[in-house]
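User: Quick sanity check before I run a bigger batch. Here is a single chain. Can you write out its predicted 3D structure?
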Amino acid sequence: MAQIASVFRRFIPQLLHMIVLPIFFFAFILLYRPFGIVDYLGSEWFGVHLTIISCIVMLCIAVARSAYYFIPMNINYTIYIFWCLGEMIFTSFFVALYIWLVLGKDMPYFEYLATSFQYISMSLVFPYLILALAVRTHDYHEKSVNQGTHNIQKMRFYDHLHNLKIVLSPDTILYISAEENYVNIYYSEAGRVREYNLRSSMKAIDELCQDNGLVRCHRSFYINPVHVKVLRRDRDGIMYAELDADDVRHIPVSKTYYGRLSDIL
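Assistant: Done. Predicted structure follows.
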């Protein structure tokens, strides 16, 4: 299953969820009053209860979206759907708790929970879909504009919080190495070799590297075959790749990846 587009992990989409979902919930329930919700909450204090419940929805979505933004995870589209479903269930727990404690009706809590989930899921499923489509459409538009403006494809590197940190042309990258919680990107600029330390992991940039012609030559290294001058074995039998840039270390090549790299060269 393909990983979810990186745009879904950025800050602005999370902020949109925190704002749009509770506002839509409030407006939808207030205007249409579906599923007999007026009788359920009581007509006398309906507006007050709806306002408080909408605030609860906002707080729960804010907590869930903050966790989604800050916790590093590899998420595909199926998992994302379950995450959105989990947000609605999480919100329903607190909405049901408010109704159970404040309205004081003679019903078990879990009956309130089931009813609350029905109201919340039926009200929010459409804004969830609209937001997902809007974010995806924005991503497609952004990529098409970038490709149309720059004829050369760019590599966009994001950190562990999904913030864009550096944009490079694939042909300028020499190699990428991993070190603890960072990846070190070595690239050429104005005839000089430069280094950029990115808070990320090799797994997080794996798809980006493969899509842009970089090849894995070691569990801790990606190398650009365009800049490989020669593969050489030292006296101890260890294979190295020499690059065409000055003052660059020799890159180790493990047996696991040697065959693929040599075929490309």
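The radius of gyration is 26 Å.

User: Great, the batch can go ahead then.
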